[in-house]
Amino acid sequence: MPIRTKSKLASTHTHRKAAVSHKPAKSSRVSTKPAKANSHGHEKPAPVPVAAPVPAPAPTPAPVASNGYNKALKFLATLTDHERLRIVRYTSENFDLDRMRRLLKHLGNPHEAFKSIHVAGTKGKGSTCAMLASMLRACGYKVGLYTSPHLLDMRERIVVNGEQISEADLARLTRTVSGFVPRMRPNPTFFDVITAIAFKYFAEQKIDIAVVETGLGGRLDSTNVIKPEVCAITSISKDHMAQLGYTLAKIAEEKAGIIKPGIPVVTVLQDPAVEQVIKHAADKAGTTLDITGKTIEFSYRFESSRMLGPHNRICLTTPTSRFEHLAVPLVGEHQAINCGLALSVLDKLKARGFNITDTKAMEGLAKTTIPGRMEIIAVTPRIVVDGAHNAASIDAMMRAIGQHIPYDSMVVIFGCCADKDIPGMLDRITSGADKVIFTKIDSIRTADPDDLAARYVELYGKMAQVAPNLKTAMEIAMRAVTKEDLICITGSFYLVGEAKQLFGKPNINQQEAMMMPVKSYSR
Fold first, then answer.
1. Which of 55, 299, 332, 473 has its CA 20 to 30 A from that of 262?
2. How high is the pLDDT of residue 310?
3. Cis ω on the peptide bond leading into residue 186 (within 30° of 0)?
């Protein structure tokens, strides 16, 4: 079926294009203020007929897993998984560090066998961890990386020097814990067990240092049994409010729960209420707090060059480190802030005796990649996926798209969990989307797409469409775009994982795909 012409796409829109820049700027002054939108009727549009859909990409065949690995996955699936429950009570009974310590004791306390960095925060944790791991590895260290959630494969969570844990090792370690976990009272959760497996694997691999990302919050998180070399707290905004609290100060209290006596703390510029909470926690623990951009000299700027295209550069100076005009490897202004935090952590490690060479660190930084964050998974038309799952992350994503990806019109496919700040996310979506298709995510926690569409129409007077799943949403989107347009899939890592599975693993040069001008798609 031929792709719609541009005039046909325009007829499906119910508002004008937002003024987020669609063309890379050549200076640091990038406008992010949305233009005024046309106001139209609130009626829900009739769904696009799907009698002759554009063929969706065939799902990538799943790799054949060993019997032992399948058994391991089945066992892990029997455990309480707070990531997939509709309602999670944030109590010391459900999130029990004593239970976690007993579990680790059964395994010989592997978390005491290696040094670590502990990273908490609302957004930017995964990116900060990836940059840290890449820089430390380039400096000659054997590095373990523990992050969550995964997109496609459970093994993504546990990585040593860039290599995921093997199916055989995950099966073996799961078999070990399955011998005593069912007898423990209360039973360890899925996150308890997968964290313990990661720590045991890191100990077996004799890593030099682990970069550990918290799962939920920090104070009661399963990872909060380590004694790290440095604690890092990324940008804090509203997320998981039913568990962590409905104010930034309350959320910050939970995140600051990773702070420990004598362990240096670094963070980024935060809301004043958040900064006050973190400072109070550091003072109470009798440790130091440094803030990039405040107590640590830090700046960044956006620019465009022929070689790198649109990108951010940062400068960071401390008594022992000097990074000048360093290109940020990941896309978006928010990644410049995350990069500054990662470099600040590295500087703290220097002071604690780690042999870190700035030149080697920069080489490692340049090699950093992270899936599911501003990742292009198709080029005709371009399809970008991003796991933004709260209002601040959606805002950062829209800014990054406006700065880095030239396009004509943008169709957003959006699905999220019902417990998120939905009004906040919808507000950020409307700043850049020309058309929105709401869909479900593969989780019991999914928000109802019909409800999302109704709220969107009520709040902004713009029409939206609804699809029962991502495949149908993609069929609708593909009929509504030309090669010059952009499809953005966002709102949840679950949705991003589905998209990556749907499109497989295309060999796409991310920088070239983002820099490709709109005119190159002309027929």
1. 299
2. 87
3. yes
